[in-house]
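hi! just following up on the protien thing from before. the input was this:
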Amino acid sequence: MTWEPQPDGLNQIITLLKQSQSTDNAMQRSVQMKLEELNLYPDFNNYLIYVLTKLTTEDEPTRSLSGLILKNNIRIHGTHLQPAIIEYIKQECLMALGDPSPLIRATAGILITTIANKGGLQNWPELLPTLCDMLDSQDYSVCEGAFGALQKICEDSADTLDSNALNRPLNVMIPKFLQFFRHSSPKIRSNAIACINQFIINRTQALMVHIDTFIENLFHLSSDDDREVRKNVCRGLVMLLEVRMDRLMPHMNNIIEYMLIRTQDSDETSLEACEFWLTLAEQSICKEVLTPHLARLAPVLVRGMKYCDIDIIILKGDVEEDEMIPDREEDIKPRFHKSRTHTQKFSGSGVGALGVGLGGDGAGAVGRSMDGNDEDEDIDDPYDDMDDDTNLSDWNLRKCSAAALDLLANVFKDDFLPILLPILKETLFHQEWVVKESGILALGAIAEGCMNGMVPHLPELIPYLIACLSDKKTLVRSITCWTLSRYAHWVVSQPHDQYLKPLMEELLKRILDANKRVQEAACSAFATLEEEACTELVPYLSFILKTLVFAFGKYQHKNLLILYDAIGTLADSVGHHLNKPEYINMLMPPLIQKWNMLKDEDKDLFPLLECLSSVATALQSGFLPYCEPVYRRCISLIQQTLNQDLASTTSPGQYEAPDKDFMIVALDLLSGLAEGLDGHIETLVVSSNIMQLLYQCMQDTMPEVRQSSFALLGDLTKACFQHVHPHIADFLPILGHNLNPEFISVCNNATWAIGELSIKLADETKPYIPMVLSQLIEIINNTSTPKTLLENTAITIGRLGLVCPVEVAPSLQQFVRQWCSSLRNIRDNEEKDSAFRGMCQMITVNPVGVVPDFIFFCDAAASWMNPKKDLHEMLQKILHGFKIQVGDENWSRFVEQFPPQLSERLALMYNI
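and the predicted 3d structure came back as:
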């Protein structure tokens, strides 16, 4: 196709392109509107490609801009463009890959990738062969342009390139790329490695065939003069470590030596190389291969943690007081709400250790409710927010070095300390504040892995760190907050007057620091301390609340959001101890003032609603004076979101889809109110349409909405069942339908809600048993079911057995072993109590069902610390009944299989 532009049209477009480079906002808006108008003309895109590829008299930025506008048009309207126009653009782009200007070549490459992504590589069959042929061109520009485009295609379409649909082009491409590892141009060498690197992680077969050649070539380029080449070599080796360690093992010593040097480079290569230690620390061979090099690696990592001059400028490290400067909105990262999940508290009694060889795995994290969000197990990376600044919050050498030291401390444990302690001594007490700061960071990084070996040094170090909280340097004060939070667990276990009180006093002063970064670090550290100390903080509540409430008047936008978190965590940690008039009068007015100021569409409502949810649960009846407006607003937020959702699904072009987080957070706050106010919520429920809203939310397409709905249903069932009762026939089938372990947290809450409903429904549960029992049995027997879900499933099966033993008992043999193994580790509580009563009822109905797994039942019965008197009698009756049934001789043989602790415990508790 040949196409020629009209001179007037061309001039008009060039003028527009020039104007769009203006910094004037009004001009930008006017250009935007004109561009949108021009999109109505089909050949507008021909003009754009013409300016990019043919108009060599124009300056490069204008030509490149023309290509980028075209890229956006293809991305947005590509499917509606005439095929002839797309063909013309394709042909011109391929020609422009050899343009003398690197900027134009790169723009043409971006356009080619966009067309390939939008239309699919299979619809442009000649693209890859053409690009591969261009690599052999004698003209450097053509070769480099083609490689640039190929690199982008490999990045964007690695999976497609390895599929049958394209006839496996990689079989040709990978050997071709390998030929260019020895090319005279560093740019082309670098591109060749970058292309192949895209195929390592997926173990692409076409690469695996040539893996030895690839590794040999990487080694050859390891000492290349070019920075980009070295960076890509490091990146390749790090990925190979994950997927083809077998091939690297013979060279591992040399690779480690090489990475040690590269980690000390003064450019970005150091970050790529530092990733190597992070990856190595997660491999089983780490200890074996790294031990000889550890003494050289540790100081390199600690040096990598030091701020460089440019970091200090970006972080405004020399600005002491900035609390009066308002935050820029773009500096505030979006926060994501974690929906409520009902989980069990594990037993910290030590009785959990009875399950030796019985499938039990010892007590879980003592007294800490494990989070059920297993489908997105993204545990917060402590190094991600360490220097929380928009410009530095990207991954950098400092964070990577600290994370690597942390992981290595977890591998080598206390054996690492003889190497680390002299380094810490030298850095922690250094005259230069940047060195001292990096030492404090290193001390925090090793806290988890080397905790045991650090304990003898903590009586000296903790007071030193508490003193560093008032250092004159902002960045020293802020990192000290973080490091102290990593040792909070130890601090809380010591006599309060020695460390906890001085630490708390200093941290509270830092919460009121004149520097925003320090305020933020202190608030986060204090939240960690609250989680560790729990009710130990009760004597200091008045002092703590005074500080937190004072901070309300002092904080700018960003830190206010972190302050809500600290208050919510405090409420979770001290619970009902917060319910005192003096505390309520301090805490509630500023929270309600913020609540009244925020509009319904303001995302700051998320952290505030989360905070109020914790406060309402803790204050219980103390929240009554505030509950009505809070309840009404939550109902209104849910209603608005549902209306918006309906509008956007029925007429998508006209209405935007809502942000469902508003609804999720409102549902969770209603759960907090139901849990805290208990029966008092009844008057609010009766005068609202909450049941209709709940019915809609329970069927939402978004898993998190369903998850929070089921939590609320369970809490309302406990608080005011009379209003839930009329809707059971609607609700229970939905719960049964959500017993799908693919969505762990949804399934968890649905399971829990079924258990709560069954307790209230009693024998009215009967018609619903077939709807849920088989799925629950399937979940409890699935080896990949997470612990939290196993426990909730076991409790719910037990509760169904309690209210309908005749219906559930025939299936006893299908679940009894797993049931006993799941519940032996959780603490004595109401839920465990009702579940065990159900098990006793089922055994009474179907004693034969428990016989093959009776040893598991014995172990579970022994896991109780203090069962209620009548439950104790039921358990004892079953144990003695079994002994009489089998006779003394068989019983003795049976007991011989028990671990000694179990025999002792049963004799002590049940006199058997």
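Residues 624-650 form the longest helix (27 residues).
The CA atoms of residues 306 and 434 lie 6 Å apart.
cheers
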